[in-house]
């Protein structure tokens, strides 16, 4: 699809996320299915109650349906416990909006249908498997390198077996899975053409450690060893306003960006946007438009000494780091902004729908 075609697409967005409504507010109808309402409630056009979803699907007003599957079954008690507190004066919506995405199972969807799973977890819940049949394409942020592992512990009690993997129906389902990245909205046009920032530090890191990935706790010890060797480490202890955080990160040659609850992390792309080269532990997932090793980013082995070696080697060649930082910024603005994210999903959905 051309940019002009994408600019005309009318979108029905179902779930607990508002990427398309944020990017294309005039052309997107957002029906909210989440137990908790968004911070800005004005963006919600209605609740994803079963009747409202059916009415929208039959209206003919939409050219594509984008849905975000729920982590748990819509019968799960966490929805019944939380939703009424968010909308006490709309009891019907409180009790039924979590069923909105599930209604797609029972009705014909005449336009391209997309499932988008942005959860930190690598699995797909049983209640969402129907989308692997109904949807034209299913995007998953934390898509394991072996796609079959999305079924571990939910659809399959263990790793899917050889017999399971040779099942033709499941093979068709697995082909619909595609990786997607975290979209970036916190940027402005001048950042894309900003001059290369002055560097005052070698490595920057700001992020939660306690209660987070063990990769972060392990890496902190290596940062201390690098600091003892004379490398300039900027590790702010205080929580910063977003623009201040970006500005401070831009003044370091490298931004250490270890995985959090999932491997994909906003910091990978935020660092690149401000021309600090992201240093990431080796990926455990398939990636969309990835930051390539030695071209846009740096990767290290999570075993002891891996972070230390990768950082010291990279910092020995500042000219190379500068080239990488500029290339990384260009890649992120081309593929990982909110607009690029939404347009990629729309384009992929129409291509898949046409090929069915």
List keywords for this structure.
356 residues, alpha/beta, Rossmann fold, seven-stranded parallel sheet, five-stranded parallel sheet, 15 helices, globular
What would you say this structure looks like, in words?
It is built from 15 helices and twelve strands. The protein has 356 residues and is α/β, with parallel strands linked by helices. The chain folds into two domains: 3-183 and 337-354, Rossmann fold (3-Layer(aba) Sandwich); 189-335, 3-Layer(aba) Sandwich (Rossmann fold), CATH 3.40.50. The strands form two sheets. A seven-stranded parallel beta sheet has the order 3-2-1-4-5-6-7, sandwiched between helices. α12 packs across α14 (318-335). The longest helix has 18 residues, at 318-335. It is globular, with a radius of gyration of 22 Å. The mean pLDDT is 94.
């Amino acid at each position: 699809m051309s940019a002009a075609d994408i600019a005309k697409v009318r979108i029905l967005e179902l779930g607990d996320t508002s990427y398309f409504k944020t990017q294309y507010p005039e052309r997107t109808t957002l029906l909210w299915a989440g137990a908790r309402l968004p911070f800005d409630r004005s963006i919600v056009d209605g609740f994803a109650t079963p009747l409202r979803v059916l009415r929208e699907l039959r209206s003919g007003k939409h050219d594509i349906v984008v849905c975000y599957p729920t982590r748990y079954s819509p019968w799960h008690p966490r929805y019944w416990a939380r939703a009424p507190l968010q909308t006490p004066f709309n009891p019907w919506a409180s009790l039924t909006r979590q069923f909105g995405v599930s209604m797609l199972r029972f009705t014909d969807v005449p336009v391209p249908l997309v499932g988008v799973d942005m959860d930190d977890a690598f699995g797909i819940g049983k209640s969402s498997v129907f989308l692997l049949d109904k949807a034209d394409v299913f995007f998953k942020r934390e898509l394991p390198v072996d796609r079959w592992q999305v079924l571990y512990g939910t659809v399959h009690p263990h790793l899917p077996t050889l017999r399971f993997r040779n099942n033709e129906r499941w093979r068709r389902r697995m082909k619909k899975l595609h990786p997607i990245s975290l979209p970036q909205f916190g940027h402005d046009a001048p950042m894309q053409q900003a001059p290369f920032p002055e560097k005052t530090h070698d490595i920057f890191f700001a992020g939660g450690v306690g209660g987070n990935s063990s990769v972060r706790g392990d890496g902190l010890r290596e940062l201390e060893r690098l600091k003892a060797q004379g490398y300039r480490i900027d590790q702010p202890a205080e929580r910063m306003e977003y623009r201040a955080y970006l500005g401070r990160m831009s003044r370091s040659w490298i931004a250490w960006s270890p995985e959090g609850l999932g491997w994909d992390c906003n910091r990978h792309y935020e660092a690149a946007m401000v021309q600090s080269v992201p240093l990431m532990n080796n990926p455990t997932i398939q990636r969309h438009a990835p930051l390539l090793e030695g071209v846009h980013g740096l990767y290290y082995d999570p075993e002891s000494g891996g972070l230390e070696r990768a950082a010291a080697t990279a910092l020995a060649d500042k000219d190379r780091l500068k080239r990488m930082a500029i290339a990384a910024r260009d890649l992120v603005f081309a593929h990982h902004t909110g607009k690029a994210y939404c347009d990629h999903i729309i384009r992929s959905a129409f291509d898949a729908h046409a090929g069915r």
